[in-house]
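User: I'm curious whether this sequence folds into something compact or stays loose and floppy. Could you predict its structure so I can see for myself?
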Amino acid sequence: MLHHVVQGQGRPVLILHGARLDHRHMVESCEPVFAGLDGWRRIYVDMPGHGQSGGGDAVKSNENLLDAVLDFAQAAIPGKRFAVIGESRGSYIARGIAYKRPEAVDGLALIVPGGNPSSSHPLPGHVTVAANPALRAALPEDERPRFDALVVQNEEIMDKARRTIVPALALSDAGMAARTWEHFDFPFDLAAPEAVFDKPCVIVAGRQDAISGYRDALDMLPLYPRSTFAILDSAGHKLAWERPDVFTALMRDWLGRLARG
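Assistant: Here's the prediction. I'll summarize afterward.
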């Protein structure tokens, strides 16, 4: 079984990280959303070839990655419905889960989705909205490229990156990452499901996201008719850290709709 960490009890929520990251990144981003809320069992997964989950050699494509996560869900959440939160690459896998097992999925949260190699939309160039030259000058030389890529530059985000992104990158399977990028698209069309996915969804994109952009996320809107949609200014690919108050409010609204539904 894939390595995973469980927080809380109640309705299951499967939480999927982005490419070359692991569960720690999503714990850092999502646990503030659930702070003070009862009734949610958060299952943070290390997908194959990430974090403490092996099996990267068997993964040749994103379809293989999807199948591994589906197998995990069947073993970890047997016979139960669940919601899915996916960030970046994890959002693509989350959409695949809803496509293949719509009867099992109560809702989707898609965070900074898009930017796939087959996308027809150009990505925006990088923009720093909130610069911090004094902090940059105090950083070691090897941390400055990561700092320069931030839309919002502050010490808190850098600390989170040191705790979660840097160690995850050291553990990730670079060969698997290259294979899944080369064989990115699923063999089925996410834009042409057999039935409309009419469960509560939230789609959140960053206006200054130079990795995923925001136009692919706009294209997803008609596919999820019960979705709340937001494009946040002063936010890039680290949207949950750059705009935490708005992100938390949007995610809690989604949880409320799940609970009522």
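Summary: The first strand starts at residue 4 and ends at 7. The two ends are 30 Å apart (CA to CA).
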